[in-house]
Write a structure and sequence with these properties.
By secondary structure, the protein is an alpha/beta fold. It has 8 helices and 10 strands. 24% of the residues lie in helices and 14% in strands.
């Protein structure tokens, strides 16, 4: 064996020898043989952020609405709203590259997340006829309202977090607060025959309408019991359109803050206005109704899917209407909203079942609503 061969073997043997370094200072001993392995906790290397389902629950602030009146069951009640986003099982790329499943993946970095639909806010506008023949119908509305709101909460309570609730009369309501007595102004106080005769302010958020933070069981009757001292020239649709106009809903207007772009609008119309020739009002055959629908939709950025109309008008049973006549103008207004128009007779002996029917329409509208159109 040559000297060179023996030297190589000695070097190889030396490389396999345990190397031990000790220090009298007590810093410990390091020993190693072969490869150095760094051990860590590898039991959970996957990231679950952003996968599976995410649940969004909204609270109405705990104030609650009154229980009473009527009880309803809304078919297809939503329950908790769940949005599910899953990872794509298919992988592309040139050459059919398969990704390394052991590497960390940031699932929250998608620059184009799935757009969320569904309303979180609802604006309720009640348009109530306050002419001399409306005492009974106003009572019907007040009796059925608690059950209606209770059913609304049951269907939308897990998704809707904010409500606005306003009332306008069918004329220029003289019993309203000073400075807000023109047609379409939200009612914040009432007076006159059979009216509540109360000042409804202050509201919790300082506006001229109620919100989920108010005691709705007390505030709605205060606003909605308008009495029957109003004009026989009934203009409920005109009042509705005027209330949504920027002149009233904008800054400084009597209805400022009521109408929101990111909310659906639910209009409840209660009127017995007949097509009486002497009264050139909204029901008159010669009244121009061609802009009613478009004016309402324009107030919601031309989004027809953001509006529901529930109309208790002279239709079908007209036993309580003067001259026992239907009102084609008012019927046509409700019907112009298609599947989002709920038509009923103002002479219904019980408004409760109609409101129960309207729940599904409101719920489906809310579910399909895009709060950030475009």
């Amino acid at each position: 064996m040559s000297q060179t061969t023996m030297s190589l073997q000695f070097i190889a043997f030396s490389c396999m020898t345990i190397v031990s370094c000790s220090s009298e200072s007590g810093r410990g001993e390091v020993s190693g043989l072969g490869n150095l392995t760094s051990a860590g906790d590898l039991s959970d290397t996957s990231s679950t952020s952003g996968l599976g389902s995410s649940t969004a629950e909204a609270s109405t602030g705990g104030t609650g609405f009154a229980t009473g009146g009527y009880s309803f069951e809304s078919e297809g009640s939503w329950g908790t709203s769940t949005t599910t986003s899953g990872a794509d099982d298919s992988f592309g790329g040139e050459g059919g590259t398969t990704p390394d499943t052991d590497s960390d993946t940031d699932t929250d970095s998608d620059p184009h997340p799935e757009e969320e639909f569904g309303c979180r806010k609802v604006d309720f506008l009640f348009v109530i006829d306050n002419s001399g023949s409306m005492k009974h119908q106003q009572g019907q509305l007040l009796n059925s309202f608690p059950g209606f709101i209770e059913a609304i909460q049951a269907s939308l309570g897990d998704t809707v977090e904010s409500y606005h609730l306003g009332v306008v009369s069918s004329d220029a309501y003289k019993g309203n607060a000073p400075g807000c007595t023109s047609i379409g102004d939200l009612v914040s106080q009432t007076s006159g025959p059979y009216a509540a005769g109360e000042v409804c302010t202050p509201f919790a958020e300082g506006h001229r309408f109620a919100t989920e933070k108010d005691d709705i069981a007390a505030k709605f009757p205060c606003m909605a019991q308008l009495g029957v001292g109003g004009s026989s020239i009934e203009q409920p649709v005109t009042a509705c359109v005027q209330s949504l106009d920027l002149a009233k809903s904008g800054i400084g207007g009597c209805n400022h803050g009521f109408l929101r772009e990111d909310a659906i609008l639910v209009i409840v119309l209660v009127t017995d206005d007949p097509p009486n020739s002497p009264d050139h009002d909204d029901a008159h055959p010669q009244t121009d109704t061609s802009q009613w629908y478009s004016d309402v939709i324009a107030a919601k950025n031309d989004d027809a899917g953001a509006v529901v109309v529930v109309g208790f008008v002279p239709w079908g049973d007209v036993s309580c209407v003067a001259l026992n006549l239907e009102s084609p103008n008012l019927v046509g207004f409700v019907e112009s909203f298609g599947e989002r128009g709920v038509l009923a007779s103002v002479c219904e002996p019980d408004f409760g079942p109609i409101f129960a029917e309207a729940i599904d329409t409101i719920a489906s509208t809310c579910e399909d609503f895009d709060p950030i159109p475009g």
